[in-house]
Structure formats: structure tokens, C-alpha cells
Amino acid sequence: MKTTTKKKNNLTFADVFAGCGGLSLGLVNAGWKGKFAIEKHADAFGTLSSNLVVGRPSKKRFDWPDWLPCSEISTNQFLEGYSDHLKAMKGNLTLLAGGPPCQGFSLAGRRTQSDPRNALTNDYIEMVSLLEPRFLLIENVRGFTLPFKKNNNDPSDAGPYSAKVKERLEDLGYQVYSDLINLSDFGVPQSRKRFILIAIKSGDRALKKLKGKSPIDMLYKQRIRFLSNKKIPYDRPVSVKEAIGDLEVKAQKLLTCTDSRLKGFKKVDYQANRYRSPFIRLMRKGATAEPNSLRLPNHTDLTKCQFQLIMDTCVRGRTVTDHDRKRLKLKKHAITPLKSTMPSATVTTLPDDIIHYAEPRILTARENARLQTFPDGFQFTGKYTTGGPNRKHECPRYTQIGNAVPPLFAEAVGRMLRQLAS
Questions:
Q1: Sign of the CA dihedral running 246, 249, 251, 257
Q2: Where do the domains of the chain lie, and which CATH numbers do they carry?
Q3: What is the pLDDT of residues 249-275, one digit of tens each?
Q4: pTM for this prediction
Q5: I need a surface site. Which of 30, 161, 194, 262 has the fewest CB within 10 A?
Q6: Burial level of 85, CB count in 10 A (0-12/13-18/19+)?
Q7: pLDDT by residue (tens digit) across 274-301?
Q8: CB of 240 closer than 8 Å to CB of 357
Q9: Which helix (H) or strand (E) holds 12?
């Protein structure tokens, strides 16, 4: 019994580009212990810290080192100030996880090879070389696997960035596996395809357990058992209605929203709607108080009418076509009216990318968090939204949620890696 406990405690991870803590939350739920997390945005780090690092002893999921201040920090600052500490940790960390910023690779954005955020993956690889952990985990958007447009100045840069990353990790002595995964296969109620890379240090005993197969094959092999244990469907995706149906307005008596810095906003009564799907029960499990981030939007009548027109005349569950955009005179490039019986479209950092399936409004931050599989007990900090010049240095709740790795999927990966590591 003591030996088992020791093994679990020895399964340690660090989270780089940690955001608000979706990946960390999934890993700790799978039995891993955090050592530190690196995130440069104060708002996002505040959410991670308040949920996983500080507070009651029962909430602390990290053995935070004394040498590292528990505050936001960029990877560049971290490497400049603490490389010696990382060298001292060499070989003592089980897993280095991270989701390098994806905006430069995203098909939804401008997707430029010169985007400076693309180069942040180099910081992750430098940490790999200093720490030499047993396992690596990288999550990114599908565009990570696609080549940029040919660069006439340097044709060697035309290939997919993922291939370059895999090659560099192999040079550092890792066996690298990767694939594209639709996270709806793992209970996430949205069509969210992501690039997943798992690497294992050459010579590690985990490679013998795999017997020549990929850890991603092992992940899928354990999928049905994982979802069955969570008591959510494994033979079909979880629909958006099953995920947020208890948060519909539906003639409810609305309450004053108290966690918004702006006055005049309302929220649903969290206890009023009795609709409970297995997924909703899972999200509500363990929540000892009403969640925050329930603030409903204050749309103008004109906006509501436009949303209703989109809902009535466009195909539900699909991004509005160019033809419909012209017909409705929409300036926005991408907007999707949800369909109640289907998974959501991919949750992004922009709240007006998605229209509710039954109500002419955008989703609340909490509804987006549900679609990202954050449990209701997980509280978000900071502003709800931001704009203009503030976008460069603020990371509001909608952005935190849209950028996060869904904790439910991270837990599935964490359980698989825990089995390999033991």
C-alpha cells in the first residue's frame, strides 16, 4: 500500500503556457501532482492559481517550489531567471506538458509563419533539454500539422511546423507519437479537432509496455472505460443541449449578476431549471456553491432580431455560408447557430462566434466553460471581455476558456500516461 502511494506522488508534471489551468486540472484529476506552471497573462494565471495552487490545503494541487514566485511569468523570463534550477531538476520530472500559443497556426486566424508566437515552441523545447522529463505532451490546433504557404526566401520553411518539432524532439532522444484527435470522442461536447503529441524518452520502460504501438492507440483503447466511469455516452457525441440545457433562460426569473464589474447584467437562477443529463450531473458534481461567470449578455433589440433571423434561415450546427453572410449583410467572418442535438462548434476566444441553439444570444462564459468541460466548481477570475489595445495584455474569461485544453480530455490522457509511467 505504501509503495503504491509513493509511485503516485512521484508522478509529477509542469505545465508550460498553462493558461487558466485546463490541462493542469485534467492531469491532477488523473492522479498527477503539479510542480509549477508557466503562464504570462495575469488574469489567466490568477484563475489557475486560485483553483489549483493557493487557498485551502484540499485545493492545492501543486508542490510549488520555493525558488519560483507564484505569479505570472513569460517563458523567456522563466528561462532567463531559472535555468539553473531546471538543470538541478534534470531527470526528476515525469511529464512536461504544454499548449504553445496557437494563433499563428490557427486556420481561423491569419495564420502567418512570421507570427512571433510560433517561436515560443522553442522555449518549450529548451525546457525539455534542461529537464529531460520521461514524458512530453503537446496540444495544439489542427493548423499545427499543415504547411504554411511556400516561402520563396527559404523553401525549407514550407513544411508543417509539427514535423520540425518532432524532428527536434527526436534529436533530444525522444520517441515521438502524434495524431489529430476530435475531442468529442472523449466526451467534450463540441467538434474540436486538436493536434496531440506524446513523446517518451528513449530507453524508458514505458516503451516496453507499448510493445511497438502508439500511446494514442492506448488512449483510444481506454476511451470506452473512461467515459463509462464518468457515466456519459461513449457511442455518440454529447450534444450541446445535454451540456448546457440547465442554463437556459426559458421564462426563468432572472437574478442580478454579482460577479460582474459592470452593473445591469442578469444571470439565470442556477437551481431553477431541473433538467439534468448525465453530462450536466458530472459538471455539477462537487460544486458546493453557485458557479460564477453566469452573466447573460445585454443584447440590443436589433442584435436579437439579427440572431433570430440567422437561427430561422440558416442551417443549424454549421458555420453560416458566404451566401448567407451576403444575404444577411453580416460583416463577421464566422458565426454558427447551434443545433441542440449536435455537439457545439469549436469554442473560441470570441463570444459572438456562436449563437445559442434556442435563444437569440451568445453563450455565457459559464456555458462556454461547460462546453470545454470545466466543472461548475471551477471559478474564473478577471474581466469577462476586453477590446482594442487591451487585447495585447489582458486575458479575460472568454479568452481564458476558449484557449484552454478541455480538462475532461486532459484527464483521459493523464490516466493513460499514468498507466504507462507506473
A1: positive
A2: 2-233+406-421 (3.40.50.150), 240-392 (3.90.120)
A3: 987 889 999 998 888 999 999 999 999
A4: 0.91
A5: 262
A6: middle
A7: 999 999 999 999 888 899 999 999 999 9
A8: yes
A9: strand 12-16
